[in-house]
Amino acid sequence: MEPANGSRPGSRPGAAWQAVALGLGLALAACGPSAQPADSSVTRVCIATNADGLTPHTFNQQAADGARAAGAQVQVIASHTASDYLANIQRCIANHADLVVAVSPDMATAVARAAQLHTTQRFALVDAMPVDENGQSLELGNVTDLLFKAQEPGYLVGALAGLMEKNKVGSAAHNMLGILGSNHTPAVDAYIAGYIAGARSVNPTLTWKITYSDSQDTAFCKQLGLTQISAGADILFEVTGRCASGYIDAAYDASAYAIGSDNDEAYLSPAVITSALKRVDRVVAITIQRLSTGQFKSGQQVFSTPDDATGFSSPSSVVPQDVINQVLEIRSKIRSGAIVPPDQI
């Protein structure tokens, strides 16, 4: 089973690279001189978060966990609004990071600007590519784009949902799924394409309701979920970003089930039976290991099941073991290449 997992610089170079105690809402203050000289053999990583800051269950927290697992010295500079992004990246650069890590498409423009200004600084952008002011993707020689085959975890949780409906487990009685996606982007479309393909592979007669919305209003997204449930949907799959909790609440209130995306979202509600995972901790650790061995790779680096970078979280007790075993078998076939999930519907 895949494991479940989504300051001001000091006055002297390297001073901020002390061990940083992280917690919710952490604000990094000016750091004094280190009592010990910095170990030049250790990779120094500075993570500039998006506006989610260091909230638990976010890609920011995963990135920090992955950097530590790789043995790096880690500094995190938490952003609170989009206006912080470029300034916080510049702080990382001023602190002589070997690698500056930024998280999500929210930071794609800020990373592009910083990378073009500081061509010898190396950057990792999680789940996005750098873009210019017009939204055009850029390939920059000092930026590695840490991307995922989202269709793979989508396929796995889709198979789980399809089997739940096929076997009429619990509330899964109408052979219909609900899907809510942010308006079309390649990552969203790949998730949904994989999800539908996985569900149909085990349950060809299954139907679904798909809604797209860029709303961040949780009450509105909850209503979208309730509408799908009233039309017969038993399991709701969200690919919605910050609107997830509202859509999942709809499943809870209507005694239906929900499936999360990106991170393990079981903490949001008992209605969540599993989540499609992007293992940000894993890909950040791999990237740091590559950097430390002189194998830093710029451009698009696409991670997948063979890298242990995608998967699904431990299902809830609602899901029968037989269903879990079948999904694990499907995962093995994806890993071997016997199944290749589609990235388009």
Q: Helix proportion of residues, in percent?
A: 25-40%
How are the strands of the biggest sheet laid out side by side? 2-1-3-4-5-11
Counting structural domains, the number is 2
Order of helices and strands: EHEHEHEEHEHEHEHEEHEEH
CATH class membership of the largest domain = Alpha Beta
> What is the second-level CATH architecture of the largest domain?
3-Layer(aba) Sandwich
- The tally of beta strands, per DSSP, is 12
Number of distinct helices: 9
As a percent range, the share of strand residues is 15-25%
The CATH topology of the largest domain turns out to be Rossmann fold
SSE-based structural type:
alpha/beta
Please tell me about this protein's structure.
By secondary structure, this protein is of the alpha/beta class. It has 2 domains: 105 residues, Response regulator (Rossmann fold, 3-Layer(aba) Sandwich); 158 residues, Response regulator (Rossmann fold), CATH 3.40.50. The chain has 9 helices and 12 strands. The strands form 2 sheets. A 6-stranded parallel beta sheet has the order 2-1-3-4-5-11, with helices on both faces. Strand 8, helix 7 and strand 9 form a beta-alpha-beta unit. Helix 1 packs parallel to helix 8, helix 4 packs parallel to helix 5 and helix 6 crosses helix 7. The longest helix has 17 residues. It is globular, with a radius of gyration of 21 Å. The relative contact order is 0.15. The N terminus is likely disordered.
